[in-house]
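Technical annex B. To support the medicinal chemistry partners, we prepared a structural model of the target in complex with fructose -6-phosphate, based solely on the information shown next.
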Amino acid sequence: MCGIVGYVGTRQVTPILIDALKRLEYRGYDSAGLAILTDKVISVCKTEGKIADLETKLPDMKGTCGIGHTRWATQGAPTTVNAHPHVSGNIAVVHNGIIENYQELYDWLKAEGYEFVSETDTEVLAHLAHKYYKGDLVRAVIEGLKKVKGSYAAAYLCSDSKTVVAARKESPLVAGAGKGENFIASDVTALLKNTRDVVYMQDFEIVQLTGEGMQFFDFDGNPVKKKTETIEWNIEAAEKSGYPHFMLKEIHEQVTSIHDTLLGRISELSGEVILGEVTLSIDEIKDLERIVIIACGTSYNAGLLGRYLFESLAGIHTDVEISSEFRYANPVLSGSTLVIAISQSGETADTIAATREAKTYGCHTLAITNVVGTTLSREVENIVYTRAGPEIGVAATKTFTSQLIALYLLSIYFARKRKKMDVDRSKRLLVSMKQLPGMIQQILNNKEFIQKQAKRFSNARDYFFLGRSLNFPIALEGALKLKEISYIHAEGYAAGELKHGPLALISKETPVVALATRSSTYDKMVNNIKEVKARSAQVIAIACADDNEIDKYVDVVIKVPIADELLYPVLTSVVVQLLAYSSADALGCPIDKPRNLAKSVTVE
Ligand code: F6R
């Protein structure tokens, strides 16, 4: 997730772009840059760091037309050279998204004589537009983008004319209409100071901004009629896209974040997973005797699902350790061990220290992380970026489900290389994974029902979350989410373990969330539900859409769409997130900033 902006008008463009970028900083903040047109010359200023760092470096850039960018790195470290805009000849471009066929385009453009200076995928967009430019920027952008697979919201500037051209596919883009001036931005937040009249762009649409107006086209160059809408939100609400909290916005963003985690990484045709930043050789993967996953908090819960996947799909013995424990446990590791550090922020002190400890044993290392260029990413040999975009709410939501997706991808990748999974099974699984965003949307469509149930039980002092097998990590995660944002005490339990002690705590005052999607342990789970029901607990079951039996045993059923059995944890995660969110909301808690907690724990 990055932020892009563009302006054409009569006012000085630099302060307008800087102000707009500051409002988009929540979308990314590792580097930033501007390209300004002055007398048929494009000047570029860019830097690593935040918009404030860019401001201190800006020369006196005069001009009334320009584009800008705030970056959240997905390919290439957050350095000045990788910062946008990227330039090819007389054309500059800023981009939010991921170019899936980057390597193919890179090779082709290199052969055509184009020089690449950055490690980013965006640079191909600049060269493509330059290659096809014959005096008409709109045409050049269309021709270039027709070659591109992936997602983009991109804005282009050309030294020949005072215009900004922008196009969209699967990344947000909105145009703003002013008087004698027009704007483009990743979202309305960046526009509201200047105009409330906006046009939301759809996939495969392109806009040309001039001072006089905005013209919209499809990818065949045909004019498209668009409706201007007037925004009623204030700036604060707009930053959250109208959601009351970042956490709720981020729960909703899982429809796109999961899509982004998958983008360019699966081939449904061959049944293969493509993980460019994993450099382990086939022999090294075949020789792996053990995986040790190290992580804290929510990332640890993701790791527990990872254990199940690596063992059952790839046949690799896997242990999961809490980073702060692993560090001092005198672990037994060898050169045939792969240590996987999972950390959203890539800056968690205990996970970094545990990774350093693991390296002293000469094992292979891999990070699953969301932030490019962090301390953790510099410590490891292999990386899988989760590409969930920045997460502002302290409680991890979209980054958790993207970690799960990364673990599915990695375990299928290892399973295929170790010949533990046949191609038909991997094809089926990959096809089902692609359907997850749509299924999450269906769960979100049922949000009001889930909210109502959470409100009904929000006065409870204690909650239990029960799951078995694949759903056990999600029971832990559901309890963690509820505790941290609503301050209701909650326990996540392996359902079969309950009768070994905690069953004593169950009474009619205790809501029990039972994760009961279809699996080989489903019948056992129903037995556990009966156990708690016999102690008068109020049971909220999360079950499959076609499960009409479960209603008989529980008080409330929240249904999830039917999916491949292995993938239900992703769907049940979204439900427990909504339950936690809605409980905290009903209690009036400060959801995005719970007491005593920080987004990134950089001390031991
Ligand atoms: C809970 C939460 C924390 C983090 C933990 C590790 O919602 O976000 O438990 O998961 O602090 O953080 P990372 O993943 O950044 O290492």
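Notes passed to the chemistry partners:
The longest helix spans residues 398-417.
The chain has a mean pLDDT of 94.
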